[in-house]
Amino acid sequence: xxxxxxxxxxxxxxxxxxxxxxxxxxxxxxxxxxxxxxxxxxxxxxxxxxxxxxxxxxxxxxxxxxxxxxxxxxxxxxxxxxxxxxxxxxxxxxxxxxxxxxxxxxxxxxxxxxxxxxxxxxxxxxxxxxxxxxxxxxxxxxxxxxxxxxxxxxxxxxxxxxxxxxxxxxxxxxxxxxxxxxxxxxxxxxxxxxxxxxxxxxxxxxxxxxxxxxxxxxxxxxxxxxxxxxxxxxxxxxxxxxxxxxxxxxxxxxxxxxxxxxxxxxxxxxxxxxxxxxxxxxxxxxxxxxxxxxxxxxxxxxxxxxxxxxxxxxxxxxxxxxxxxxxxxxxxxxxxxx
Length: 338
Fold this sequence. Notes:
Elements: H1 2-23, H2 25-32, E1 35-39, E2 48-49, E3 55-56, H3 58-71, E4 77-81, H4 87-93, E5 98-99, H5 107-111, E6 115-117, E7 122-124, E8 126-131, E9 145-150, H6 154-165, E10 170-175, H7 178-186, E11 192-196, H8 197-204, E12 213-215, E13 223-225, E14 228-230, H9 234-252, H10 260-263, H11 269-275, H12 291-298, H13 302-309
Parallel strand pairs: 1-4, 1-5, 9-10, 9-11
Antiparallel strand pairs: 2-3, 6-14, 7-13, 8-11, 8-12
């Protein structure tokens, strides 16, 4: 009976999603007057409300960019905090229009749960946090080390695979949750702590002496993070996808929130197309010609959003690394607007 109930529940969620898709998500958002964004309950740098309920973060700014493209107003978005367990149900049921919440793009989530990922906004992967005094420059120097790790996770499996694949020995120190593992590392019970690299920078801020620890450069797993939407509404998928592309293209073209008004006078065809002065590429998205101008003016390009939430302009100080533009040795690459 439980299996049957689960099948029926999934069928109902699918029906709701299909109904929403048929109605047109963009139409619904415009009639409602604001975007519904599925967010993390609180991950510094990615999505976190302050004591006044004001949200900030990398994923938060993506949803603000979608709102800016639609309404010319980045504040017309309501953030719905979702746990890891509830996030997919909320998207399936239509409770949120887009899910932007540290979510890894996988085949099972697209083919088995009815989602489409609009792109990779942050290339993440598992890494290691160690104390500077150990003078380590590579995870390959961790042979024989004790590693704090959360048990029952893919993190634990990736750790075993990494050491086995490199013929290295290690001592796993397992904990039921991340908080316990971080406290144990801070207390000196292990030589290193491992989780997704973005999480390492967040957890490092909780240590008694954050500057005494460093994140090693190796990434030992693939965790491509990005926003997701429901399947069945191609126009909405296209709109959200091109919001991401426009922000990356803007950085590549050197168009920022600070100079976008000046760049509007540019004679470069690529910039004129991006900002809506040549062609009308917003029409196919159901938006005005200045849709990308709105995003850049109100929210900024990809590099600006990264810097203030995760990079050198933030407490986390995360290096761009593989999240740099393709022109600078990274993986961030967007199709051209033409």
